[in-house]
Amino acid sequence: MKSEMGYRFKGSGFEAPEEKKEYQEPNDKLKQAFQWWLHTHAGDRNELYQRACEFLDGIEATAEEANALLISCQKPRGDEALFVSAVYSKAKEKEIIFDVDLDTPPQELGFRLPKDKVLIAKANTGHYLGFQSEGMVINYANTGEQLGYFAKGSVINYGKAGSRIEEVTKETTGLFINMGTINGNLGYGLVGAVLNLGTAQTMMGDYKGVTLVDLEGLHVNPIDLPELHIKCKHYAKVPKVRKYLDELISKLEAGRADHQAAIKTIEDLGPEPAQKITADLKKALGWRYWVPKWLRSISGVFDFYDP
After folding, report:
1. CA nearest 137: which of 170, 162, 109?
2. In this structure, are residues 211 and 225 in contact, taking their beta carbons and an 8 Å threshold?
């Protein structure tokens, strides 16, 4: 599971330094709990995560020690990140940085991340990054499919990700912002808010209750129109919408090189960022928002959204 770039644990004496990234070796209690947990393979992801939390009871560990567990895994079985996610949840750090480049990127990292945590992925991860997370997830690297699946928190993608959501779920109610690349459907089946400010490959989400902002011009199925759909033409022709989005994009762009700026942008939106953005955009649209949905869908005939 170690990558070619290599890692080493910090020496206890005066060993000659190696040209490898240093990581603090996990404490003995954490390593022992991890080994015990590895022998309890039976159960679904929720059961395995809960069992990890039980094994961690009374053990203090940092997020860096959790990352080091993945480095020490010579024969990964594929679900080690559930234990690591449990350590993240119990660690004292609010901001958790994953920066371990592994040959086998971890699956389901950040599973059930608590609301008061932020996971910043600066190295590649597998599928389901931020699965069922209530905290904030920021991806700067390559990740697999279903980024932010069932998430109730905020997810920002600056890197590259697989399909956002490929099936209907009314559990994913958070805010998803794409500033990078999504290689598939974006926001499909969501009931939260989706902002495509980057590049996506095919279709935007199209289910009742979702707020969509798409400055790229992706296809949206008109069968079940979203509650609010901000398209390229609204950005171009409605000054208040353009001003609002320009300001938001400027703040998010600052977060591309500084995760603190990205965190602040979301936190400044208040405790319910998806609802805040939706309310702000409705206000910016003014009377256009109140046009009946069935009229909005008659393109070229009753285009009441235009000013």
Report:
1. 109
2. no
pTM for the full model?
0.86
Position 268 pLDDT exceeds 70: yes
Answer for the pair 122, 101: CB distance below 8 angstroms, yes or no. no
Q: What angle do CA 89, 44, 170 make, to 5 degrees?
A: 75
Tokens describing residue 291? 């046009």
DSSP secondary-structure letter at 22? E
Q: What are phi and psi of 162, to 5 degrees?
A: -80, -165
CB 137 within 8 A of CB 121: yes
Both ends of the chain: CA-CA distance in Å? 56
Closest residue by Cα to residue 82 from 57, 41, 49? 49
Least confident of 92-106, 136-150, 187-201, 264-278: 187-201
pLDDT tens digits, one per residue of 96-116: 999 998 888 999 999 999 999
